[in-house]
Amino acid sequence: MLTINPDKKVQTIILTYDVTPGSFEKLLEILTEAYRSLLSKQPGFVAAAVHVNDAKTRIASYSQWESRDAFQAMQRLEEVQAVNHQLSDLSKGFFPVMYEVAAAF
Q1: Which residue, of 56, 90, 94, 104, has the fewest CB within 10 Å?
Q2: CA distance 4 to 103
Q3: Taking phi first (over 0 means left), then psi (-120 to 50 degrees means alpha), and beta for anything else, what does residue 9 get?
Q4: Can you give the pLDDT of all 105 residues of the chain as single tens digits?
């Protein structure tokens, strides 16, 4: 379960995907399947959530990892790189940004 807590020391990654309505469903399918069958099985994975906007032009994912090193190790896997290539092809761009939780309300 995803918990946003500033006292919990996890690495938070937020990715946003800029998509067209025509590529929205396919990207969402690939992304959710990647979390279900690949990413959630990696060492250091804590939790994730996927968010979509009403216009079907933006998808955001919020994931938590035990450490920056765990996230970076996952990114080096060939299977993950293949998925990222598919996501890149279906979107105008996506940008992973690492965060630490500063406050939660």
Answers
A1: 104
A2: 9
A3: beta
A4: 788 888 888 999 999 999 999 999 999 999 999 999 999 999 999 999 999 999 999 999 999 999 999 999 999 999 999 999 999 999 998 888 999 989 989
pTM for this prediction: 0.91
- Considering Cα of 29, then 34, then 40, then 41, what sign does the dihedral take? positive
Q: What residue ranges do the domains of the chain occupy?
A: 11-99
The CA–CA distances, whole Å, from 33 to 39, 41, 87, 99 equal 9, 12, 12, 24
CB 12 within 8 A of CB 62: yes
